[in-house]
User: Fold these one by one.
Assistant:
Number 1:
Amino acid sequence: MTALRGTSAMIFETNRLILRPRTMDDFDDCIVMDKAPGVVDFIPGPWDEDGEHRAFVRTRINAHYSDGLGYWSVFAKSAPNTFMGWVLLIPEDGVGPDVEIGWRLHPDYWGNGFASEAALALVPHAFETLNLPRIVAGIDQRNHGSIGVARKIGMTCRSKPDRYDVYVIENPQRSDA
């Protein structure tokens, strides 16, 4: 994995993928992805109301996060102009203190390891660059695909408070994690 520093945000590269900061150029692709069958089945949000959905995505794209946090759009190196989805590192529930990792891909790209590869690119960034003590993910217990991604990137299930399991990976460099 290679991390390239730009003027304001990082671009990550893996063997097959390029992750670049998400911008309004990705807006329409995000909406199309969210409307694809199965994509938001296990994710609460305003997906059924077009105006609210568009406002939600616009707000998320335009949000300002602390240095090193945010959303990255995912593209294949073999098709660098074709939006595949996104990954994120943002404060959990918008306020922290923990930082959440997340991923969402268009179904055309499911089952090929792309989500795991993209999410895994953010783990060293979270621990080595940002020195976070841990990263977390809340995953619906029925979302077997995302549970698989969480496990592949080294996360373990820490609690099952309700329908959403909390997956965690601790920073191995920190004793307070």
Number 2:
Amino acid sequence: VLARAGHGSRREIEAKIEAGRVSVDGKIATLGDRVEIVPGLKIRIDGHLISVKESAEQICRVLAYYKPEGELCTRNDPEGRPTVFD
């Protein structure tokens, strides 16, 4: 929930939870806790109240692409080789 809301990567959020820096409704969170987004939910990181909104229904799109040999699966190649994003 916190990673999707933009408060860090999943690994960063996991580290904060393991360090006891995240609380849900006044209770220290532990890894694996499930949170249902409901009105009045209070999530805090380092004591700061975090705003988390219920995510809207998103359309899932799957893209199939035939990657030719020699094309790289990276956003940027410092050597200038062709990528799937070119």
Number 3:
Amino acid sequence: MTGVHAHYSALSLPAEWLIGEDMTTISYAVPDERIRAVAETLLALESRLVWIFCEREAKDGSFVLRYVFELTEMRKYLVLVLNTRMPESLVEIYPAASRFERAITDGFGLQFAGSPDTRRLFLHEAYPDGFYPLKKSIKNAPITPFTASDHTTPYEFRTMEGTGVYQVPVGPVHAGIIEPGHFRFSVIGEDILNLEIRLGYLHRGIEKRAEGCSPEKGVRIAESVSGDESVANACCYAMAVEQILSVQVPPRAVWLRAYFLELERSWSLLSDLAGMVTDVAFSTAASRLLILRETVQRVCERLTGSRFLKGIIGIGGISHDIPDDLLVEVTDTLMKVRVDLEGILSWVLSVPSVIDRFSTTGVVREPLIDPLALSGPVARASGRALDVRSDHPYGLYETHPIPPLTRMTGDVLGRFALKGDEVLASLAYITELVRQIPKGPVQAEYEVCDGDALAAVESPRGRNLCYVRICDGSIDRFALSTASFCNWMALEHAVLGNIVPDFPVINKSMNLSYAGTDL
């Protein structure tokens, strides 16, 4: 612990503030009045604020907040723990803080002094003012929503004024079979001047639903957050619980978890690739990519009984073993998928009409990555090699890393090419795993005990973080932040200066999760 604390000496954090250190984090208790100064120092050290969440409401009416920072070349996250009644907003220092603070206000009613945006985030007008669902005084029970009236504060979109400026509202119901979200464009002609995204239509109260559940049931809740990152969220949750319980996952289970994580990444990104060429009317390529996705999902079903790999992850390992001969058989199928994909990617990237639509469209500029806490393919396609698997290695990635891939252009073309590269890399990684996978048990025994921990994984969309607190053998607090939560801000910036007809392909090039944001 001393060595890690010494690395943070540039922060001038007193040693007596040090709370502790675990596999993922090093934590400090920071006085309320010092949080802004510490945040400014962290910004000067080029740190990234990747999450703020409220752990709990204390008995004295104050709130315990946790600020999670990522520092370059530090394998552990820095967590600042704050006990406060009205914390100072950090939006001026870290713009990404805005959505985190609004989510905390919705859930707990805690106000942030100096916040430039106090609008609701995930609670819509059907919820009355003064309803804060994550407080312990609110019990898990059906609620009766009502029509918006004087009981709620109307949501106001930002407006752009000027000659010829008009608004184009899109959603929340869309023409495709997709999740709901509202996009409010301010445009002149077809040129986009501003985009504001409003989500929350899929808010299901997942964090509240987990309260009082057994740690085992929490796995099923976590994997239900977003269908195309079921394994990522289940693993993230399980890893947090395993830290609390001091569980050592058996080697074979560690290998199989990596297999399933990369399998999920493959089919999820194949879906993205198909969607992108669909949105530029290249249906022939889309059909071929969807065939590959279907092939991979059938492999998922053969291995686990679920096309979405649900039910396979458990605390202490995986729910059941996979025979070696079956692994070899399906991996041969995946090798054929990889060969086919190489040909399709080469073909698509040689078509002038595709390049014309993809190139220079929807650029995410590299200077936005840190202020907005962007991650995953969105960040890597803009030249930043941010990847939890390499920056904060976990599981098999500690000994068998996957070097992060990057593209430099930050446009739709860069994201398409990068996602294609990542599918190829994941399928190659899977092939190597099968050749070396050890034998042995896939489930460790454990006893439930109280405690708390934070874990992180690299989902198909980027950095997912999960915090779990267990009290009296049950979940007392379950908090989750998926990559989509921050990456939606990238979409608001990427469309600026583009035309409205290009919005669908820009949106699909990121393919962010509504459900994974709304929780």
Number 4:
Amino acid sequence: MNNRLMKLTFLKTCLALVALAFAVPSAPAITLKELVAKEGPPKLFTATKGVEMPTADQSNNFNEGDRALLLSGRELTDITGISTIKVSDDGVVKPVSEVKSLLIYFNHNQLTRIPDEVGTMHNVRFFYGEHNPLSALPDVFTRMRALEGIYFGSCRFTEIPPFVFTMKDLKKLQFSGNRITELPESIGNLTELRHFNMSKNRIGSIPGSMAKLTRLRVCDLSDNPFTSLPEAFGAVQIVNQLRVKNCPITTLPRGFATMRATIDITGTKIDPATLSPELRAKLDTEKPPGSKEWDKVIVKPKDFNKQKEK
């Protein structure tokens, strides 16, 4: 019996050692100030055609010459000081406020709040804060004069912060993968939106004011429990794609028959036979020919092929 116990103990020890050998150590939690004190001024990435982005962050919002502060996946718990830190720009150390056109990436961290000081960062074009335990944002985002897009997918939001609907110059808005239950009528204020992603939430209805978003190129409403789309929304001439995958809708607005975009109805309750021939012709999981502009993307990320599928 003792011999059997010894063998069992030995086997458990071996399995534990194997698991330890293959375990990926996680970085310790750290604040932005501590990170800068430890590593020095963060190096900016410069968007240059043909250069690969060193991270898997989204890269299709770059213009040539843009700078990016790449701080995703650093286990950051606090970014106080973000507006006043010094950065290394092609070897030249300067205040971050002196960078002309900046994209900021804080994806995959441990942030529970965004400090008010970001409102003074008038050089930021896109702000990424996805995969953080965030449930609220300060309204100072409205003061960021150059801001074109905000990305807060896979956080803990139960609503889109109301101030967002006053940001009438926003071109891209993403709150996918949250716990949002309502899309208010005020979404119609954001008439400059090109890309809108609210997939994987808990939205029970789509407001008629979506008809005001006349510049949409991609609209992703997939994986939500709403059962219909307003007929008025059918007047929007979406350019590339409308995604309503896995939504329990049974039909589509008739107006969608004249738009250029394709419509992905995978997993819905729509019987294609009940749609007009013109609407059936729009059904596809791929965007229309010529709408994928990856050949025009300045910078390609590490997982370029995965991003092409989005």
